[in-house]
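Let us practice reading a record.
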Amino acid sequence: MAAPATKVDAKNINDKLDKMLKTLVANSSTLDKLIEEMREIRKSQQFLSDQYEEMKKHLHSTDEEVKTLRIENQDLKDHVCKLEAQSGQMQEDMNNLEQYGRRECLEFQGLSWEESENTDQLVICVSKLLQVDLSAKDISVSHRLSPVSESNWQPTIIARFPGQTTYVTLK
C-alpha cells in the first residue's frame, strides 16, 4: 500500500498541475491561431482550385474553337484553290473565245482616210486589187480603229467576215 500524500506532495502536485494548465492554455491559444491559419489556407487553396478549374474549362473551350477554325480554314483554302483553278480555266476559255471571235476579222492598213467614207467599199476595192471575189453581203461590219498616235494619221480599217471560213490564195 502506498503511503498517504503529505501537504508538500499535494502542493507539488498542485504546482505541477497549474504549470500544465498554463502550458495548455498557452498552447491552446497557439493552437487556435494555427487552426485559423489552416482555415485561411484552405480558403485560399479552394479559391486557387476554383480558378484552375475555370481556366481548364476555358482552355478546353478554346482548344475546341481552334480545332473548328482550323477545319474551317482548311475548307476555305480548298475552296479558294478550287475557285482559282476555275478562274484560270475561265480566263483561258475567255481568251480562246476572244481569239476565235477575231478569226473572222481582217485589218487593212495604209488606206487613205476621207470624210464620210464607206469602209465596206474600201475593203471590196482592196479585195479586187488582190483578185479576191468579195461583195458587200460578205462583210458583216467594217470601221476604222482609233489612231494609236498622231503620226498614224491613216487609222487601220478592221472588217469582220462572218460565216464559214474561206481561204484566199493570192495569185
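A brief commentary: The chain has two domains: 11-103, 105-160.
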